[in-house]
Amino acid sequence: MKRLLALLSISFIFIGLYQLATHFLRKTSSPPAKPVEITEEATASSIEMIAGEESAMVSRVIDGDTIVLATGEKVRYIGMDTPELVHPKKPVECFAKEAKEANQKLVEGRAVRLEKDVSERDKYGRLLRYVFVGDIMVNDYLVRQGFAHVSTYPPDVRYQEQFRQAEREARENNRGLWAGCQIDRRK
After folding, report:
1. Which residues partner with 85 through β-bridges?
2. Which domain holds residue 171?
3. Of these residues, 73, 76, 129, 144, which one is catalytic?
4. From 110, 126, 171, 175, active-site residue
5. pTM of the entire structure?
6. 187 residues of the chain, pLDDT tens digit each
7. Is residue 68 within 8 Å of residue 58, measured between CB atoms?
8. Which of 18, 62, 123, 124 gives the lowest tally of CB atoms within 10 Å of its CB?
9. Contacts (Cβ under 8 Å, ≥6 apart) of 96
10. Residue 15 falls within a domain, yes or no?
11. Residue 84 appears among annotated catalytic residues
12. Is 164 tagged catalytic?
C-alpha cells in the first residue's frame, strides 16, 4: 500500500510539472497561425500522453464500470459489466451500490493510466479503455472481487481470457455478487 501511495504521489508530481511546463511553453510561444478545430480526436488527445501512454485524473465515478475524467470525458471499462445503478428503464440491481463504492475507492480523485484496445468509443460516445491505478488493472480487479461479470464485445477482447479466469475465481469463492445475486447471462 505504501508503494502504491508513493507511485501515485510521484505520478501527481510528474503530472503537475508537466502541466506547469506546458503552461509556461504556451505563454512563451507564439499563437497558432490558424484556429484549432475541435474534433473527437482532439478531445481524446486532451488526455495527458506520458511516455506514449494515456494518463488522466478521475474526477467522478458514475457507477461500477463508468468514470468521468477531469477533462470531462466519460470512460466505460472494457470487458466487464457491473450491475445497473443508473439506468432510466431499470431498477437498481443487486450489488450495484457496492460495485460503485469499490470503483470509487480505487480511482476517484486519482491519476489513472488508460489503455485502448481496438475501438475508441462506444455507441454512447464514451471512451472505451482498460484502466490502471499503479499496477492494478481496475477492470480485472472488479471482476476478480465479484463486483462485475465478464462482458466482452469484439473487437475489444485483448484481456477476455484473463477476465474469464477472474470471474471463475470470484464465482468459485462466492465473492461479491456471486454470493447471492441472480445474474442474467443473456445480456
Report:
1. none
2. 38-179
3. 76
4. 126
5. 0.72
6. 566 555 555 554 555 544 544 444 443 333 333 333 334 443 344 467 665 579 999 999 999 999 999 999 999 999 999 999 988 888 899 999 999 999 999 999 999 999 999 999 999 999 999 999 999 999 999 999 999 999 999 999 999 999 999 999 999 999 999 998 876 654 4
7. yes
8. 123
9. 63, 64, 82, 83, 84, 85
10. no
11. yes
12. no
Q: What is the CATH number of the domain that holds 141?
A: 2.40.50.90
Catalytic option among 60, 84, 101, 171: 84
Give backbone dihedrals phi and psi of 112, rounded to 5 degrees, phi first.
-125, 155
Element (H, E) at 139: helix 138-144
Query: Looking at the domain assignment, is residue 173 inside a domain?
Result: yes
The one-letter amino acid code at 144 reads R
Residue environment code for 132-142, b if the CB has 16+ CB neighbours within 10 A, otherwise e? bbbeebbbbbb
Residue 29 sits at the vertex; the CA angle it makes with 24 and 31, to the nearest 5 degrees, is 120
Cell of 96: 450495484
| Number of folded domains that form the chain | 1
Residue 30, all three cell numbers: 507564439
